[in-house]
Amino acid sequence: MDNPMQRRTFLSRAIGVLAAAGALPLVKAQTSSQASEALPSFTGPQANPYWNGVNPFVVYPQKLPLLRLTDRGIQLETPRQYFRTAFTPNEAFFVRYHLDLIPNSIDLSSWRLHIEGNVEKPLTLSMQDLLTRFKPVSVAAVNQCSGNSRSRFQPRVAGGQWGNGAMGNALWTGVRLMDLLQEAGVKPGTVQLQFQGLERGPGPEGKGSNAFMKSLDWNDPVLQECVIAYQMNGEPLPMLNGFPVRLVVPGKFSTYWMKHLTWIRALTQPDDNFWMAIAYRIPDTPRGNTTPADVAAGKVKTVPIGNVNMPVRSFIVDPDGSSKLVVGLPVEIRGVAFSGYGRVTRVEVSLDGGKTWRVAQLGEYYGPYSFRTWSFQWKPTQPGRYTLAVRATDEKGNVQPDEPVWNPGGYLWNRIERQDVVVGTAS
Amino acid sequence: MKRYYWMLLVLLGVWVLAQDSSLPGVKEAGSYTQGSLGQVLQPLPVTNAQPDGVYGVGAWPLYTPELADGPGKELVMGYCQVCHSATYITMQPPLPAATWEAEVQKMIKTFGAQIPDEAAKQITAYLQAHYTPETRKP
């Protein structure tokens, strides 16, 4: 580590001697650019100011280097640069498990999808059955963790300290949930459908630490759109994203998108397991917003996060602040936007931190639940410091707010995103 | 002898040129230092898989950072890591002492962690001694 410094000192001395002789100009001391230094190992108690969480890059099977939040259970965040395109590559797609006993290897000769509970005819389906007996369908849909951007919260809350990268968009191909349920014949008296995959933990039976299960109401219209996906962007699902099949619930947060889906149960009583009754609940308030004081006072009534769709969001992917921009040189400000409530109809960009807004150009439309890319051509005419901002509007008229949200789970963040940039002179 | 002086001058010239900050616009060049951002190895492709129904990816890698040294560290590593790696602690932002107390109680009461009272006290004290806004160190 000391070597370069010694060399530099020697060099400056040598050059200094020559300079003194009038041969060379003097050399200024080196200043490091921020981009070559590591981020801190944690942020807080203030909000995380970075786009991604501050965690290190690590490599997992079937994955490019991703940002490690935790390694058992596994939680990996997608780096910002993979959001330049509408579809997120499988090998960069984020990973979020709750428990540590997850499959390393699955034998499709013995794996079966079970449909059971309050049904006329329980089904046991092999991968072959899913591939041959049911009509394949595809849907482009954003899978976003309920706690995406949790590290923005003030005051900070415990939980996975995601930046913005706990999300991804894929083309999901598989069979309609309703096609399977039709064959099984769901009986009257069913109130919920429970989904369970191969995610288990060492905790005692009946506790949340033993098994991960989620349920959707039988009368929820989203069931009509649910797909049991065996393909992701035209490829088998990576193991860490739910091989062999996962549930796709368009417009809803990923907590319902059960990975390694193996059991579907028609329930006659509401699911009271930990992951429904205690975890993944939001205040029953506008935006799920509340205060630490109201929580402490026991004033907050909560509902499952599945009662709402994902609020409208947009993200600046480029420029990312890793280098200076050049005055007079056009730069493409670009990123993605989506809403769980349907098509993104408008994306606006601000060059002055949100004071004034200009309409950005929207990329191709892949369906109401997909990422939509957007771009805005900007030619900075004055050197200086700028704060870029972006906000999206969806077809229901929802506009991204500039007010933060707070709840104890760290859910539903969708505040307007900003990016500071520095523009240098060209002469 | 004169020839050697000449060669030495050329070498010195090349060396000076390589470091020459008088090149048009070059403010700094030829500067290297030990990388602080780390490197990771590429994964090997699946070369010996059988064409059967088994789809495996091997063991999941662990990347667990070291916990802060102090009394109670062994208890944390023993009890907490029954269900999850200690990375769940280091990943958190600095959390108030009361939050750590609540987290430990949640693990016991809600998740069913089998931690004796005395150990739970020491685990809580350890977390409060190293991972609050007042005590957390980089």
Would you write up a description of this structure?
Chain A has 427 residues and is mostly beta strands. Chain A folds into two domains: 66-279, Sulfite Oxidase, Chain A, domain 2 (Alpha-Beta Complex); 313-424, Immunoglobulin-like (Sandwich), CATH 2.60.40. Helix content of chain A is 10%, strand content 31%. The longest helix of chain A has 18 residues, at 3-20. Chain A is globular. Chain B has a domain at 94-138. Chain B is flat and about 85 Å long. The interface between A and B is large, with 66 and 53 residues. Strand 5 (105-107) of chain A pairs antiparallel with strand 1 of chain B, so a sheet runs across the interface. Chain B: GO terms for molecular function: electron transfer activity; heme binding. Chain B: InterPro entries: Cyt_c-like_dom_sf. Chain B: This is Sulfide dehydrogenase.
Structural class of chain A: mainly beta
Shape verdict of chain B: flat
> Helix and strand succession of chain B?
HEHHHH
Please provide the count of β strands of chain A. Answer: 26
Biggest contact: A-B, 66 and 53 residues
| Cα separation of the termini of chain A | 35 Å
The appropriate CATH architecture of the largest domain in chain A is: Alpha-Beta Complex
Protein name (chain B): Sulfide dehydrogenase
Organism (chain B): Meiothermus luteus
GO molecular function (chain B): electron transfer activity; heme binding
InterPro entries (chain B): Cyt_c-like_dom_sf
From the structure above, extract its key features.
heterodimer; A: 427 residues; mainly beta; Sulfite Oxidase, Chain A, domain 2; Immunoglobulin-like; five-stranded mixed beta sheet; five-stranded antiparallel beta sheet; 10% helix; 31% strand; B: mainly alpha; flat; heme binding (chain B); Sulfide dehydrogenase (chain B); electron transfer activity (chain B); Cyt_c-like_dom_sf (chain B)
